[in-house]
Amino acid sequence: MEKKVKVEKKQIGLKASAGTVRRYRDAFGADLLLDMSVVEGDLISNKCLTAESTKIGEQVAWIMAKEYDPSIPELEEWLEQFSPYFVLLVAPHIIQMWRDNLHTLNESKKS
Fold it and tell me: At what angle do helices 86-110 and 32-41 cross, to 10 degrees?
């Protein structure tokens, strides 16, 4: 699944696939499934992101952007082009893509 989103006057391409989970684990040594539940939980229950979920959101956004366009720079350099709060703008798109992928997976199991 691919999507382009406008964040702070910039177009960001995002891609989510089976490889996203592995790339995230390889890059950050963490489980994307568990980390996404932290971000989603913070947004739903607190209507804001904690320091932990902000970091996770930035990492997931970068992995999805990197999957869409392998030429983007490394995480810290990529983040420098945005304000500190860009993750609040991109997180809903990431969560929606994540949910859409899970929904597609659930439909496949039912068939």
Answer: 120
Bridge partners of 14, per DSSP, are: 3
Question: What distance lies between CA 59 and its chain's CA centroid?
Answer: 7
Whether the Cβ atoms of residue 91 and residue 43 lie closer than 8 Å to each other: yes
pLDDT in tens, 31-67: 998 999 888 888 878 778 889 999 999 999 999 999 9
pTM (two decimals): 0.85
Give the end-to-end CA distance of the chain in Å, rounded to a whole number. Answer: 20
